[in-house]
Design brief:
This protein is mainly alpha-helical and 252 residues long. It has a three-stranded mixed β-sheet with strand order 1-3-2, with helices on both faces. It is globular, with a radius of gyration of 21 Å. The two termini are 26 Å apart.
Length: 252
């Protein structure tokens, strides 16, 4: 039987616990965080991230970048004057403005003149967005309204879906698993698949059971690769119009 190109197996990132030195930095800036809102809060968070990362228990760039979310969650949890802001939003409704931004991201990035993902780009993004969108023709804006209805009623294009899967998928799964344990005592193990922006089949697994209730990791205590992954690989290949796979290598 013919075989398709092997999918990419995406490892689950480990969430680093905060250490005392990081918490000390967070406490130093807590009042600054409480007294501001909006963009000013983002500036406080960026300052905390730069300082606290100097004390983080890793030098891995990807892990250090993900620590910003951990710092943000800690800050929200300390603000008891009102309920913490929900960091996960499932039911996204597209607007014409958001559609235009998605369609013109490259031009907006170029307008900032900064490196993608840099602090400079973040600072200049809003103004660059206003400049680029203001330059669009009325026909383009009207077309965006039509596209918005299509994205909301059916689905966003595959490249948009791929970006959400890669940038927000893990956070949403962790939030779901955590809430279901708190509210229903459920333990959850997730196997997932999606196509990236190149059309490449991506496979992944997520387990957060060791994070609550003294649970053990399903990944570390069971042969999930041997028992489940072959069938999952073949099934997802069929669903994403790939040819069935007879052999595979799992790289973790």
């Amino acid at each position: 039987m013919a075989q398709s190109e092997s999918p990419v197996i995406v490892p689950q990132q480990t969430k680093l616990p905060l250490i005392k030195l990081e918490i000390a930095v967070l406490k130093t800036h807590l009042e600054d965080w409480r007294t501001v809102k909006g963009k000013q809060r983002q500036n406080v968070l960026n300052a905390i991230h730069r300082e606290a990362c100097l004390h983080a228990p890793t030098w891995d760039k990807a892990m250090l970048k993900s620590q910003k979310k951990t710092y943000k969650e800690w800050l929200y949890n300390q603000c008891r004057r009102k309920a913490p802001k929900l960091l996960i939003k499932y039911g996204k409704k597209w607007t014409a403005h958001q559609v235009l931004i998605e369609q013109n991201k490259a031009q907006i990035q170029e307008e900032t003149g900064e490196t993608p993902g840099s602090e400079g780009m973040i600072v200049k993004w809003l103004e660059a967005t206003k400049t680029v969108l203001a330059s669009l023709a009325a026909e383009e804006k009207e077309e965006a309204r039509v596209i918005t209805e299509k994205w909301n009623n059916k689905a966003a294009p595959p490249d948009i879906q791929a970006n959400i899967a890669e940038t927000k998928g893990a956070d949403r799964i962790e939030h779901f698993a955590t809430e279901m344990f708190k509210q229903a005592g459920m333990r959850i193990f997730v196997m997932l698949a999606w196509q990236n922006w190149e059309g490449k089949l991506m496979l992944g697994v997520h387990n957060f059971n060791e994070q609550f209730g003294g649970g053990e990791s399903f990944l570390k205590t069971r042969d999930w690769e041997g028992n489940f992954m072959p069938d999952w690989w073949q099934y997802t290949g069929e669903q994403f119009s790939e040819m069935p796979i007879q052999e595979h290598e799992v790289a973790f």
